[in-house]
Specification:
With 297 residues, the protein is an alpha+beta fold. The chain contains seven helices and 15 strands.
Length: 297
């Protein structure tokens, strides 16, 4: 069944709802044979994903992010949702000892991770470093002030946040139905299936699109971070798109791919990114967190 914004496909023991949002393929695996329920949940998911994309995308004009990023040092009013995300990113900054910094997105003006061998100039990176530093951001529950030239970029947690928001809506609307929310590999399972069987989820290999491993998931979140699609390659050296905000250059000696399981997708995504930021210490960092993970080097 095709709605125009999304599609519904009936399977033997579940229904799949599909759409595109946040530059990613999105799907719901819904343990039901009721097309009306599947249609309703997919419609909810599509609307919520588009709402978050419209609100937080740095690529769109005239949205809250554009207002903040173009404020030129003037205060900008924010709502409760933005404040909560700012508080979360502040916790991420502190947990990572400054390595997770949503002001570092300005480095995209120098780095173009398109698979080519085109590296930025040292001067180009140095100029942008003046606009990085979460500690420079001033905010409270009602407003935020960015130094002129600085920007916020929620791309590091945006999809994971959307997955968790959609999972919450699905759980409220269909509390006895197991739903897998998968936005470009960022995943949340709302509850155990009625037959107590697990959902099978494939982790992509960093080398190609074929699954490197199949995981069984009953409930909880799963997220993967890596350089399979976004990288530079020059003189045999691969440059990851995960940038160190303290240097302006890619993290070295990091795994090609990190997948983490956690209670919520946004937690899994944060830990996967932090592991990459730890470089050679990725595995030991994840062991310290006491979570299940899979690394490919």
């Amino acid at each position: 069944m095709i709605n125009g914004s999304y599609t519904i496909e009936q399977k033997s023991d579940h229904i799949i709802g599909r759409f595109s949002a946040m530059a990613s393929p999105c799907e719901l695996l819904i343990e039901t044979q009721d097309p009306m329920l599947a249609n309703h949940l997919t419609s909810l998911a599509y609307s919520e994903a588009k709402r978050i994309e419209q609100k937080f995308s740095r690529y769109l004009p005239n949205n809250p992010m554009a207002n903040i990023n173009h404020s030129k040092g003037k205060p900008v009013a924010i709502d409760d949702e933005i404040f909560r995300l700012l508080e979360f990113t502040n916790s991420c900054f502190e947990l990572s000892e400054g390595l997770f910094d949503i002001t570092s997105g300005v480095l995209r003006k120098a780095w173009k991770f398109d698979g080519s061998d085109s590296l930025p100039s040292a001067d180009g990176v140095k100029v942008l470093m003046a606009y990085i530093g979460w500690q420079k951001v001033k905010y409270d529950q009602s407003s935020i002030i960015l130094t002129k030239g600085m920007e916020l970029d929620f791309g590091g947690i945006g999809k994971e946040y959307a997955v968790d928001c959609v999972a919450k809506l699905c759980a409220q609307c269909a509390p006895t139905t197991s739903v897998v929310i998968n936005f470009g590999g960022d995943i949340q399972v709302t509850r155990a299936r009625n037959n107590n069987q697990a959902w099978l989820i494939g982790i992509e290999s960093p080398e190609d699109a074929a699954p490197a491993k199949m995981l069984k998931i009953i409930s909880g979140g799963l997220a993967t971070s890596g350089d399979a699609r976004r990288y530079l390659l020059k003189d045999g050296k691969r440059y990851s798109h995960i940038l160190n905000p303290e240097t302006g250059y890619p993290i070295e000696n990091a795994p090609r791919s990190v997948t983490v399981a956690a209670p919520h997708c946004i937690q899994a995504g944060l830990l996967a990114t932090l592991a990459l930021l730890k470089g050679a210490r990725a595995e030991s960092f994840l062991h310290e967190q006491g979570v299940k993970f899979w690394c490919y080097r």
